[in-house]
Amino acid sequence: MSANPPYGYTYTSAVPTLFDQPWVAAADGSSLAFSGGPRFPLPPVPYGASRTHPIGTVNWAQFEPFTGIPAVAPGNVTPYAEDYRFSIERQLGRDTVLDVSYDGSQSHHLLTLLEANPGDPALCLGLSQVSEVAAGSATCGPFGESGTYTRADGSVVQGTRTPFSPAFGSVTWQKTIGNAHDNALEVSLQHNSGPLSVHLAWTWSQSIDQSSSLSDPVDPVDPSLSRGLSAFDLARNFVADYRYTLPVARWLRSARPPQWLANGWQISGLTRVTTGFPVTLVNNNDTSLLGTEPNGVNNNGADQLSFTPGSLHLHGNPHQGSAFNTALFGLPALGDFGNARRRFFHGPGSDDTDLALQKSTSIFDGRSVELRAEAFNLFNHAQFFGATSVQGNIGSADFGQIVSAAPPRLMQLSARLRF
């Protein structure tokens, strides 16, 4: 995957390089070429390699360091899901139907992003103090998993990533170890009578997973610690859509308007009231010393924040400061993963109404003209609604702030010829 060597070529430089000389360090002009000579051009490699028939002619030093390269785990299996539904439907009178349902699903062996070569936090912490390393040697800390350290006794440590050789930095498995479950109570009321049609729907649900997509890397030591609300979870959602054919001819009966003017008027709308999406908390400071960032697919690591239980003071008004109580969150101690879930509370919700007034007029030979006036977010409510409406990255100056909003009221006119 991702042009992995030797059939493709992915190289992540350890330092910034010159634009016209990509194998020369910009800071001091030193060469980044490996000891065997220049990295290009690469000799062609024959296809057909396997575990039983390896190709032994590849000079792997040309591809080092191996960093940010994703690979499919060889033991992956096919994901599957179990879905179940129980529903009761009841007719209420001649024109109304009530439906109450329970829907659920269990998903297994979902594809997740897992650091394949994590650092050893204990080894790094043992090299983090000046007294623990030789004079002139660097000390270990965040993002130092691939560094070289000399102990006080003179022994050399070639990085703290222990599963693979020092030629590898952060490399990532795409592995089918995830699972998820979703459960929902759904209530629907449908009414149709003459010129009026109304559909009301209310959902109370919860979706939980370890990883909502490959943008959610999981803890390589204990993947269960990454379990939390799904990125798309909406706890409560109410939707009403309605349509009414206006009796203009009856209203203007005394004026006796022409038929083309009195007929074909209709008003329709959609109202939605919902809780917000979960706030995704991000800790890209490598406080766990596992070195899960970067991982080859996205720029966020698997680390979590530390959380002190207390009132979150959730609100959706940016004039009142942070959307949640940021004082409850902080960076964990070095070597700790963090006890906060990636997502466990929701951001601001939405209260939105869209309305349309339509006039349809028949002209001749089955043709008609439709005029339509529409208003989106009719009442112009501020909608601080969306998966990224609240900044959850503790490294940002806007941590906890509402940083985006849905569009304000939008109005449009349209004309359509049907033939």
Report the major sheet. Answer: 12 strands, mixed
Distance between the termini: 51 Å
The rounded Rg comes to: 30 Å
Report the total helices. 3
Number of domains: 2
So what's the oligomer here?
A: single chain
Strand content: 25-35%
DSSP strand count: 16
| Percent range of helical residues | under 10%
In terms of structural class, how would the helical and strand content be classed? mainly beta
What is the average of the pLDDT values? 90
Task: Sum up the overall morphology in one term.
Answer: elongated
The SSE string, one letter per element, is EEEHEEEEEEEHHEEEEEE
Low-pLDDT ranges = none
Considering the chains and any ligands shown, give keywords for the structure.
single chain; 419 residues; mainly beta; twelve-stranded mixed β-sheet; two-stranded antiparallel sheet; 3 helices; 3% helix; 33% strand; elongated
Can you offer a commentary on this structure?
The chain has 419 residues and is mostly beta strands. It folds into two domains: 64 residues, no CATH class; 265 residues, no CATH class. Helices cover 3% and strands 33% of the residues. Strands 1, 2, 3, 6, 7, 8, 9, 10, 11, 14, 15 and 16 form a twelve-stranded mixed beta sheet that branches. The chain has a two-stranded antiparallel sheet with strand order 4-5. Strand 4 and strand 5 form a beta hairpin. The longest helix has 5 residues. It is elongated and about 105 Å long. It starts with 69 loop residues before the first strand and ends with a strand.
